[in-house]
Design goal:
Layout: E1 2-8, E2 16-22, E3 37-41, E4 46-51, E5 58-62, E6 72-78, E7 92-94, E8 100-102, E9 112-119, E10 124-127, E11 131-132, E12 144-148, E13 154-156, E14 166-169, E15 172-175, E16 179-184, E17 194-197, E18 202-205, E19 214-221, E20 226-233, E21 240-243, E22 248-250, E23 256-259, E24 261-263, E25 271-276, E26 279-280, H1 288-293, E27 294-297, E28 300-303, E29 312-319, E30 324-333, E31 336-339, E32 348-352, E33 357-359, E34 364-366, E35 370-375, E36 380-381, E37 388-390, E38 398-400, E39 409-416, E40 421-431, E41 436-439, E42 442-445, E43 451-460, E44 474-477, E45 480-481, E46 490-498, E47 505-514, E48 524-530, E49 533-541, E50 549-554, E51 561-566, E52 582-591, E53 598-605, E54 612-617, E55 625-634, E56 649-650, E57 664-669, E58 672-676, E59 691-696, E60 706-710, E61 714-718, E62 727-737, E63 749-754, E64 761-769, E65 775-782, E66 792-799, E67 809-816, E68 821-824, E69 832-840, E70 853-856, E71 868-876, E72 879-886, E73 903-911, E74 919-924, E75 935-939, E76 946-955, E77 958-959, E78 966-969, E79 986-990, ...
Parallel strand pairs: 22-30, 32-40, 42-49, 75-79
Antiparallel strand pairs: 1-2, 2-3, 3-8, 4-5, 6-9, 7-8, 9-10, 9-11, 12-15, 13-14, 14-18, 16-19, 17-18, 19-20, 21-24, 23-28, 25-26, 25-29, 27-28, 29-30, 31-34, 33-38, 35-36, 35-39, 37-38, 39-40, 41-43, 43-47, 44-45, 44-48, 46-47, 48-49, 50-51, 51-54, 52-53, 52-55, 55-56, 57-58, 58-61, 59-60, ...
InterPro entries: FN3_dom, FN3_sf, Ig-like_dom, Ig-like_dom_sf, Ig-like_fold, Ig_I-set, Ig_sub, Ig_sub2
Protein name: Down syndrome cell adhesion molecule-like protein Dscam2
Subcellular location: Cell membrane
Length: about 1000
């Protein structure tokens, strides 16, 4: 064997190795058409391939150890040219690792090759030097069986990651070129997200998952034989944390445990590291005393006998060969005396006679303390037994069974943890036992009933709904809770409402049964149960009148039809039969434009016919498609189900019934008028081919001697006989018509043709400042004439102090002629402007200049934004409040001499994380006790709601830039009971629909 190995380097790419071989043997020669040949990228290391038992072929190749880089793409140049590339085929493969394979060689393969690599990220590339693939000169050989390359099958990338695209590649030598087949060794199907490409040699698995892992088999076959090889696919994934570490506050001399709970595939061993303030925790490197306190075991860090110096940020990092996950928490070692907060500990508890009360004693302390309940009325501490007692549960609750009026009074919860002691008092208010009312007391179902509303009410003697205990309604159907029934049948709602003229609060629970849920399976007893008692109602099926049959339509005109129907044969009008006696009928209709059924105007119709009913319907729209149906009605107002509807019936077309209205006109020039009007029959047409007949008079005649017909709602009239007078009167009239005939003619409209320009003049001009950049200009038109052409008004404002530079034009805006005021924007602050208004026409001619007025923009708005320093929850005597502090800013420019009537700050409160519009509150600087350290107190915020707050300065010139938002969720932030902050000087009360601002 003779083998020439060529090694070459690329500047920043992996080195390439290309191998050229000439195969010879003493016993026989391998013909060129059956020679095995390959070329591979390499990192300059070589390995032995081994031997082919059949052909005694031995060769040296270069291995490629680098993992697949998705940013590389490989190609091969051929024929010594940089313009020719090797094309892949069933015989030729360019591997995804860059290797070039030939299943068998041909004489044309004896040429020069070079490997080319391109990098998509940098859009650059490089190719190596050309080398020659030398083939022995022997006659064509015979076919041979497939032989899979020893490096195949291979998996790319070498470490497959879940969610990536994974490639399984297979190549075999053989003549003829082999075909390929992929299977799973375990007998399972190939993944659903897999695709076989590149002549069957590549199995691509998109979005690979753990279940796609396993042993895969590649089989190569041709007419001579079969060869196969297997490869095991392991899907890797970075670790994922199940529960993140959470911040903790713990007392001294206690034990804290942090657990890094993670998930990671068994195929990827993990390593867990712990850090304290960014430094690794290594117990072996700690002093002996510290080593006993810090214990690392598996994924758990335990700190025993905690000390204040242990306060730090602790972090765990879980990593494997694919990636890592991390979580951190702040551990604070601190002792706190017990503190009660108004957010969670109520001042008053309302309870009803005969019920039970369970009131937990919730406080905050480090370490946890011991709790004792005390009856403030008797001065005695409660025991763990009896009707009024203290429970030994986790929250040391106060328990009162079968509450009576004698239990009303104050109860104190005492907490002591060795660091300090605190107490909180709750007043137990006992309310009389209310009654439960269910309405209606009885409900009968008919086919015409579309929904049933059942209501359960309880009235409590409370001053406000916040003081009333929850009633806890529960609905039952035939002694089964509706919670266990299909939810599509019921719509349940509960709400509070104030009872008028009494000091009571009514809580109402309502369930709705929709038409789709009404049937015999819903007939029975519905009961409402609460902690105060129960009530019930019965739902029965009521007989309904029979449905009319044989509904027919005849005598159809443009505006009416006649309906006829047959009563059921088993009943007579006002007589007795198997169903209820019929008293009247309701006719319902729908149109092609509105597919919803609706009752015909006039309501219910009676008929004197005993067997056959009929009715003539008037006031229908012509040229419209209708459908009709009938319902029968009993004497007590119960309607039957609707009859079968009729086929679509078209009323006959008719002439337009309405006259054209709102005719408008304007001159285009001294001989042309543009006429416009409101269209008729926009939703439907009374007849085919709706159009308009426009008539007008020749000036100066008043006879409508000219006309034209147009299909649209505007037209330009050319006055061919217009005189040269400066003003000519034209009389207009418009009449709608269609193929049936003509409708009513509109009232005559008078228009004027004129060659005159505008005569009107703007007077009584007033300019008022809006803010620092806007002025509002008011004016009145005077000297208006019929015989003038006017298109609009030109509003012009010039700087008063700009006369030296020719009176610089700052604003020149056009408005419609009907306007008498306009707001000008984009002006400079604290600048005087002279504004005037001039009328103009379509030719650009202007009327007399208007009288100018002078206005001055306000001083600029604040240019800087405040900085929110603190947004916190703070305890008060009545419970809690939210305190907002921000930095003071200059509310006017230093160079400004303006005196502001209003200046201060605006607070914007967004309720919820997705609120689009905020609540806006204004604070005047004069109302602040300390303008250098502004602060506000916001009352009325709801517990567990999320709020975002921003602040901005304002003055008469406008509102300045907003501060960065600061957010808070009440109930998650602990009130700073020990805060030594100065009292806020401003209080906001926020309600659902009312904002009350109070200064203190």
């Amino acid at each position: 064997m003779i083998c020439l190995q060529y090694l070459s380097y690329f500047a920043w790419f992996p080195s390439l190795c290309t191998t050229t071989c000439t195969h010879q043997h003493h016993s026989h020669s391998l013909a060129p058409h059956s020679a095995l040949a390959s070329a591979r990228p390499t990192n300059l290391s070589t390995d032995s391939l081994g031997r082919s038992a059949r052909y005694h072929v031995e060769r040296r190749i270069c291995t490629y150890e680098q993992a697949l880089n998705q940013s590389y793409s490989y190609s091969w140049l051929v024929g010594g040219s940089t313009e020719r590339f090797v094309s892949q085929s069933k015989r030729v493969l360019i591997s995804m690792d860059g290797s070039l394979y030939f299943s068998y060689t041909k004489k044309s393969d004896d040429t020069r090759y070079a490997c080319s690599i391109s990098v998509s990220q940098t859009q650059s590339g490089q190719y190596g030097p050309f080398f020659r693939l030398v083939l022995p000169s022997h006659p064509q050989g015979q076919a041979f069986a497939p032989q899979i390359d020893e490096f195949q099958p291979q998996i790319l990338p070498e470490i497959p990651v879940r969610g990536q695209t994974v490639y399984l590649e297979c190549f075999a030598y053989g003549f003829p070129a082999p075909s390929y087949k992929w299977t799973r060794v375990d007998g399972g199907l190939l993944p659903l997200n897999s695709t076989i490409t590149n002549y069957g040699r590549v199995l691509r698995i998109d979005n690979a998952q753990f279940e796609d892992g396993g042993r895969y088999k590649c089989s190569a076959l041709n007419d001579v034989g079969v060869d196969s090889a297997e490869v095991y696919l392991n899907i890797h994934a970075p670790p994922a944390l199940v529960n993140a570490l959470s911040d903790q506050m713990i007392g001294t001399n206690e034990t804290v445990q942090l657990e890094c709970d993670y998930l990671s595939p068994k195929t990827s061993p993990v390593e867990i590291e712990w850090f304290r303030n960014g430094m690794p925790i290594v117990p072996l490197l700690m002093p002996a005393a510290e080593r006993k306190r810090f214990v690392l075991k598996a994924n758990r860090l335990t700190i025993k006998n905690t000390q204040r110096s242990d306060s730090a940020v602790y972090q765990c990092i879980v990593s494997n060969s694919v990636g890592s996950a991390t979580s951190s928490a702040l551990i604070t070692v601190k002792n706190l005396a017990p503190v009660f907060h108004g957010i969670v500990f109520p001042k008053t508890a309302h309870v009803v006679v005969g019920t039970e009360l369970r009131l937990p004693c919730i406080y905050h302390s480090v370490p946890e303390g011991r709790v004792h309940w005390k009856n403030a009325k008797t001065g005695e501490f409660l025991s763990l037994e009896g009707r009024v007692r203290q429970l030994s549960d986790a929250v040391s609750s106060l328990a009162i069974d079968n509450v009576s009026l004698a239990d009303e009074g104050a109860y104190e919860c005492w907490a002591n943890n060795g660091v300090g002691e605190a107490k909180a008092t709750v007043h137990v208010s006992v309310l009389p036992r209310p009654s439960v009312k269910v309405s209606p007391s009885r409900q009968q179902l008919t086919e015409s009933v579309e929904r049933v509303n059942l209501t359960c009410e309880v009235e409590l003697s409370c001053a406000d709904s916040d003081d009333c205990p929850e009633v806890l309604f529960d609905w039952y159907f035939n002694d089964h809770s509706i919670r266990t029934l299909p939810h599509t049948k019921f719509d349940k709602r509960t709400r509070w409402e104030k009872v008028r003229r009494s000091n009571k609060i009514r809580q109402r629970s309502e369930i709705k049964l929709l038409a789709s849920a009404l049937g015999e399976e819903n007939v029975g007893r519905y009961s409402c149960k609460s902690i105060y008692g129960s009530g019930s109602t019965d739902l029965d099926v009521r007989p309904t009148p029979s449905v009319p049959t044989h509904v027919r339509v005849f005598d159809v005109t443009s505006h009416s039809v006649k309906l006829a129907w047959r009563q059921p044969s088993n009943q007579k009008r006002r007589g007795q039969g198997q169903s209820l006696p019929v008293d009247a009928y309701r006719i319902e209709y729908r149109t092609s434009a509105n597919k919803y059924w609706q009752a015909f105007k006039g309501g219910v119709f009676e008929t004197t016919d005993r067997i056959i009913g009929s009715y003539l319907l008037h006031n229908l729209d012509p040229g419209q498609s209708y459908q009709f149906r009938i319902r029968s009605r009993t004497e007590d107002g119960v309607f039957s189900a609707p009859s079968k509807h009729t086929e679509w019936v078209d009323t006959k077309p008719a002439v337009p019934s309405r006259a054209v209205k709102h005719i408008k006109w304007r001159t285009i020039d001294d001989k042309s008028l543009l006429v416009e009007w409101d269209p008729l029959e926009a939703k439907y047409t009374s007849g085919p081919n709706l159009r308009y007949n426009i008539s007008w008079s020749d000036t100066p005649s008043e006879v409508l001697s000219n006309w034209t017909i147009v299909p649209y709602e505007h037209h330009i009239i050319e006055m061919s006989n217009a005189t040269d007078t400066e003003c000519s009167m034209v009389i207009l009239a418009i009449q709608p018509l269609n193929d049936i005939g003509s409708g009513p003619t509109s009232t005559n409209t008078v228009a004027y043709l004129s060659s005159n320009g505008p005569f009107r003049q703007a007077e009584q001009t007033v300019v008022a400042a809006v803010n620092s950049t806007h002025l509002k200009v008011y004016w009145q038109w005077n000297s208006e004439r019929d015989c003038e052409n006017v298109l609009g008004g030109q509003v012009s404002c010039r700087k008063v102090d700009g006369q030296a530079d020719g009176g610089e034009l700052v604003v020149n805006q056009s408005v419609p002629a009907s306007y008498t005021h306009w707001t000008i924007g984009g002006l400079q602050p604290e600048t005087e402007y002279s504004c005037m208004v001039t009328a103009f026409d379509q030719y650009g001619r202007t009327g007399p200049p208007g009288k100018a007025a002078v206005g001055r923009t306000m001083a600029p708005a604040p240019s800087t934004s405040p900085v929110i320093r603190n947004l916190r929850v703070q305890s008060t005597e009545d419970g809690f409040t939210t305190v907002l502090d921000w930095s003071a800013i200059s509310l006017q420019e230093d160079s400004s001499n303006a005196t502001y009537l209003n200046k201060g700050y605006k607070v914007y409160i967004f309720i919820s994380e997705t609120a689009a519009e905020p609540i806006e509150l204004s604070i005047l600087e004069s109302a602040l006790q300390d303008p250098l350290n502004p602060s506000a107190r916001i009352d009325g915020l709801k517990i567990m709601h999320f709020y975002s707050v921003q602040v901005a300065g304002f003055n008469d010139g406008g509102v300045g830039p907003l501060s960065s938002p600061s957010s808070i969720r009440l109930g998650l932030t602990t009130p700073d009971a020990g805060s030594n902050t100065r009292p806020s000087i401003l209080v906001f009360f926020i309600a659902v629909a009312t904002l009350l601002l109070r200064y203190i």
